[in-house]
């Protein structure tokens, strides 16, 4: 049995043990007494992640660019995608606009809105109309301006 969104123990990602059993997570909690007590902590991961899926090729650009990391979406929230602060998901690639797109997670649904970007936002190969929210489903690909460097799969 394997977790679909990974397993974390005390905030650190773990990999499956050869037996499919994970070690116990032990947390130390301070009490009013001088001696700490131990308790088992179980945290269930229900996070969605935008997993990078581009090939990393930046030959079409004048300069090299950093490869993006996975981006974890909390259960509810709004995230701005852009090339610089104050974006939540910063993609330092020239083909990504300063304020490129918006990702909204609410009540188990995810929507992506292109904020008028120069090079567009795409879901499963289809370009989004600007300022219109489109649903993003598990397994779908989303591209923010550059298919090689800024393509993600929602997992």
UniProtKB/TrEMBL annotation:
SUPFAM superfamilies: SMAD/FHA domain. Gene3D superfamilies: 2.60.200.20. InterPro entries: Cell_Proc_Reg/RNA_Proc, FHA_dom, SMAD_FHA_dom_sf. Residues 79-128 form the FHA domain. Pfam families: FHA. Signal peptide: none annotated. This is Smad fha domain-containing protein.
